[in-house]
Amino acid sequence: MNNHVQKNIKILSRFNFFSDFNLYAPIAILYFSRVTGSFALGMSIFSVVMISSAFFEIPTGIFSDIIGRRKTMIFGAFCAVIYMILYAIGGSYMVLLLGAIFNGLSRSFYSGNDDALLYDTLVQMGKKERYHSVLGKVSSMFQLALGIAALIGGFIANWSFTAVLWASVVPQVVCLILAFQFIEPRVHTAKSTNIYAHLIDSLKQFGINNKLRLLSLASVVSYGVGEASYQFRSVFVATLWPIWAIGIVHSSTNFGAAASFWYSGKIIDRFKSLQILIGAKLYSFTVNLIALIFPTILSPVLLASHSLFYGVTEVAKNSLMQKEFTEKQRATMGSLNSLFGSLFFGFFAIVLGSIADAVGPAKALILAQLVSSTMIYIYWRLFKNDKDVMLQSVAIK
């Protein structure tokens, strides 16, 4: 049975690849802004995705813990096919809005659940200690797919935005087929049938665990600001490079992130997770400010360069949080963290778009970098607390 369930790892790698093979990604904000008529309304589509995702986070997380990982993946893939078709139809703000709701629902089915599926699979295989290494490799498929899709999508977009959107439907259909191939891992803890008690127990963990609170806060700020900035970045790049070249910026970013994910296990084994998080954030903050304050033809290259740290930092954060999650509420706690991040993104994306409408893309992105700098302090607090605990442990011995 253990050998049978290990197929989940290969299936998850393929699933991750096709789920993020989004040809429209490089020009999404340009397409949404063109249909809606402004940067603020264009960014509001991304905002609705995250708000709807936040709305559905808790029930889908509990659904995963109680009903199963496999069924949750199937529902998520089905919703992904629907949202992509609606985006392709486009034509009006309301159609895009409906697509955004299904997009958010799909994301909520995936978030927390895919990590829990992988973790439970490795537990059943007796290889739980390999989680961060395997997570890095299967997560690299996201970035590899985004990189290839961005390169192709950028050139197609130069000819037709509509063609890019319809072509993006096919990978989501492939994901739906793959979702039915997952094997449900054995449940190694008793299931709760009281969803309210399950939710309360999960929330309590954030209240009593200070380290988990700080990790969650860093994750929320990182995701909200980072994702909003990434989605909006094409607008800034379009002021320096032609539309067909935007895909090159995205693909180089994704390929760098894919390499970072692939080697994240070895890097984390060599260095401490918190040291990696602090160093990577200092680098990205400095390089991004230089690229935005002094815009040149090289600015897009600088913006893409910090992707070399993206994968390892995401795996480091995920691994640290998984250690703090309880077995019984693992997917629900992951969904709670995603909920907080989605809500913050929903707020920040509209703010970013509104500022861009008022003062321009570059200044809006500079503001985002200043907000994200707060993570340096949070990581320092975590590092300091860990160091204090280690010193106390040595003193006791």
- Cα(first) to Cα(last) distance is 43 Å
What is the beta-strand fraction?
A: under 5%
Give the tally of β-strands. 0
What is the number of domains?
A: 1
Q: What would CATH call the class? A: Mainly Alpha
SS-based structural class?
Answer: mainly alpha
Helical fraction equals over 70%
Radius of gyration computed on alpha carbons: 20 Å
Gross morphology is: globular
The total of helices stands at: 20
Q: Quick check: average pLDDT?
A: 82
| Largest sheet descriptor | none
CATH superfamily: MFS general substrate transporter like domains
CATH architecture: Up-down Bundle
**Could you name the ranges where pLDDT drops below 50 across 5 or more consecutive residues?**
188-194, 388-397
**In the CATH scheme, what's the topology name?**
Growth Hormone, Chain: A
Secondary structure topology:
Elements (H helix, E strand, L loop, with lengths): L1 H4 L1 H13 L8 H9 L2 H29 L1 H21 L3 H18 L2 H13 L5 H27 L3 H7 L1 H11 L15 H14 L1 H28 L5 H20 L1 H7 L2 H21 L5 H7 L4 H15 L5 H30 L1 H12 L1 H23 L1
